[in-house]
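Support reply, case 0932

Customer input (verbatim):
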Amino acid sequence: MALINRISRLFKADFHAVLDQIEEPEALLKQAIRDMEDNLASTEQRINLCAHDQDALTLRKSELESSVADFEAQLDLCFESDKDELAKTIIRKKLEAERLLKRLNAKHLANARFLNEQRGLLEQNNATLESMRQKAELFAQRSSARSDGSSEFDDISSMAREMTVGDDEVEIAYLRERNLRSAS
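Our regenerated output:
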């Protein structure tokens, strides 16, 4: 039974290694960037539609506010002329306009919140996209460096050579530290 489990694990490991070789990280990253760009385009479209709706709501609100002010002036005139029936009709229109104005204000506020959320989401997605583009650029640079015959090990060994500290640097740092300590 143990032999069958070991062979099964070996087969799974080989199968996963084959899948890893089939998947091209560069292609996957490029596809992720395309998907993110599509997502950004749809978010921008939603923002534009929402901004258009917001402008239309603002215009309608100002029209209703103007109508309510006109109703006030008409009511003053009706009461001065003792036209009670006409005043009741205007009051009905005024109440309807105020009720509609209240709904428009609520919708305007909700739309403004949604618009702010979408703009925040767009900023986050733009930052993520920029990060993905930078990663893709780094990946492309590494791929081209490796195709030139160098390996990742060569990169690490060159970094290690750059990190090596010489005896003279140690001596100068020692003198600085000693002077700092003796001064205090």
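We compared this against your earlier run and they match. Two observations from our side: Residues 37 and 129 are 7 Å apart (CA to CA). Residues 153-184 form one domain. Please reopen the case if you see a mismatch on your end.
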